Structure formats: structure tokens, C-alpha cells
Amino acid sequence: MAKCSICEKGAHFGNNVSHSHRRSNRMWKSNIKSVKAVVNGTPKKIYVCTQCLKSGKVERA
């Protein structure tokens, strides 16, 4: 699973809990995009979460 190159956000794990309180594994995936961004003056493809894109932490190429 990909991680955000800026904030290191990745997948989170936990349990689905049914009405009868039986538990099964589940996964929350963060919204990560492959983006061409400027890194040290050169364009490079990196994985970035949409919150970092929206906040302006990443300069697109």
C-alpha cells in the first residue's frame, strides 16, 4: 500500500463490528494519488494524499 511522501499517511487497520458484536478485520485506505511534483527543482512522480495537495504543501510540475 502506498504512503504519502509528505505526511507519511498510509492505511489504518481496525475491526468491523456487526450488530451482534462479531468482529472482523477491516482497513481504512487514505486517498493517495500519484502526482508529478517539483522536488528540489526537478519534476518527479511521487505519491501524495489529497489533503497535502489541497493544503498546498506540494507544488505540481
TrEMBL record:
<dbReference type="GO" id="GO:0005840">
    <property type="term" value="C:ribosome"/>
</dbReference>
<dbReference type="InterPro" id="IPR026569">
    <property type="entry name" value="Ribosomal_bL28"/>
</dbReference>
<protein>
    <recommendedName>
        <fullName>Large ribosomal subunit protein bL28</fullName>
    </recommendedName>
</protein>
<dbReference type="GO" id="GO:0006412">
    <property type="term" value="P:translation"/>
</dbReference>
<keyword id="KW-0687">Ribonucleoprotein</keyword>
<dbReference type="InterPro" id="IPR034704">
    <property type="entry name" value="Ribosomal_bL28/bL31-like_sf"/>
</dbReference>
<comment type="similarity">
    <text>Belongs to the bacterial ribosomal protein bL28 family.</text>
</comment>
<dbReference type="InterPro" id="IPR037147">
    <property type="entry name" value="Ribosomal_bL28_sf"/>
</dbReference>
<keyword id="KW-0689">Ribosomal protein</keyword>
<dbReference type="Pfam" id="PF00830">
    <property type="entry name" value="Ribosomal_L28"/>
</dbReference>
<dbReference type="InterPro" id="IPR001383">
    <property type="entry name" value="Ribosomal_bL28_bact-type"/>
</dbReference>
<dbReference type="GO" id="GO:0003735">
    <property type="term" value="F:structural constituent of ribosome"/>
</dbReference>
<dbReference type="InterPro" id="IPR050096">
    <property type="entry name" value="Bacterial_rp_bL28"/>
</dbReference>
<dbReference type="GO" id="GO:1990904">
    <property type="term" value="C:ribonucleoprotein complex"/>
</dbReference>
